[in-house]
Every structure is written in structure tokens, then in C-alpha cells.
Amino acid sequence: VQLQASGGGLVQAGGSLxxxxxxxxxxxxxxxxxxxxxxxxxxxxxxxxxxxxxxGGTTVLADSVKGRFTISRDNAKNTVYLEMNSxxxxxTAVYYCAAPRWLGPLTKRENEYGYWGQxxxxxxxx
Length: 126
Fold this sequence. Notes:
This protein is mainly β. Helices cover 0% and strands 49% of the residues. It has strands at residues 2-6, 9-12, 17-24, 35-40, 47-52, 59-61, 69-74, 79-84, 93-100, 113-116, 120-125.
């Protein structure tokens, strides 16, 4: 599975962005995989942001983004989205989409994700 993240950019605090992650390859199995978003701020470790089940019926969000971010997917387009509202300077990071190594329960654990996009930079100015 190849993942291509896009949609990052520079936005003022309080603004919004929508990130997209398009999947290709994998023999058309995108719709069978849960998907996740992670981020890495300058000088910090990568951290979990959000995850969505293969059907889209279950989502999990990090406490730091609950109420502001929404994860969704369109299996017909092989794409997962991260809608980010009320952005804060502390949301500044490179955002990565990822797919798990194997089919299983929805997870927040970074080491259970084996396919990663190249990352897209989100910068929130104060």
C-alpha cells in the first residue's frame, strides 16, 4: 500500500485545514484497512492523532484534538481525511497518514502501523 498525504499549509490560529491521504496499490484492499493519522512536532516524538475503522463506523481521537478534529474516509476514493478546525500553534507539525501492518482491532499504537505516507507540514501561526 502506498500512501500520499496532502493538504498541509500555513494557517492562522483559529483557522481550518483538511488533510487528505490517498491510498494506492495493495490490490484494492484499502477498504479493509483501518487508517490512522499521526503528527510530529519539531523536536518531539511522533504522536497519535486519530484513527478510523475500515468501515468508518468507529473513530478514535487523541484528547488534545477532541472536539476540533474529525477523521473520515471515502472507500470509493481510497482516501482518508483529517478535518482540522480551531487550529492552535501547538498543532504545528508534520502530519502522517498510516495503515496498520495487519488487519486487527483499531489501534493507536504507532508500532502497529507499517505503511506510512510521506507527511504534510501544517504550520499554525499565532
